[in-house]
Amino acid sequence: MREAADYIVSLPKVEQQHRAWQTAIEILIGAAEGRDFMLHAWIAMKQALGKDAPAPKPPKKRAKSYRITR
């Protein structure tokens, strides 16, 4: 947790004001105080770190063809 907090503090103030980083900060503080889980803090940090990455495109699946038999 200390490394995550140090990283966030080292960010420029404009970057710290981003919604993803604000969420990560709140959840990290909650985990430090015992109100939240460490897993939630880890997920919030991962999301904040990848906030500028483009969203992955869903894979295109070929529609199944069905044959009706009587």
Keyphrases for this structure?
70 residues; mainly alpha
Structure explained in plain terms:
This protein has 4 helices and no strands. The model has no long low-confidence stretch (mean pLDDT 88). The protein has 70 residues and is mainly alpha-helical. It has helices spanning 2-10, 13-16, 19-32, 38-49. It starts with a helix and ends in a 21-residue tail after the last helix.
SSE layout:
Blueprint: H1 2-10, H2 13-16, H3 19-32, H4 38-49
Helix pairs in contact: 3-4
Give a concise summary.
With 70 residues, the chain is mainly α.
Helix content: 55-70%
**What's the pLDDT, averaged over the residues?**
88
Instruction: Tell how many strands the DSSP assignment holds.
Output: 0
Question: Are there runs of 5+ residues with pLDDT below 50, and where?
Answer: none
- So what's the overall shape? elongated
Helix/strand-derived class? mainly alpha
Helices and strands, in N-to-C order?
A: HHHH
Oligomeric status: single chain
Largest sheet: none
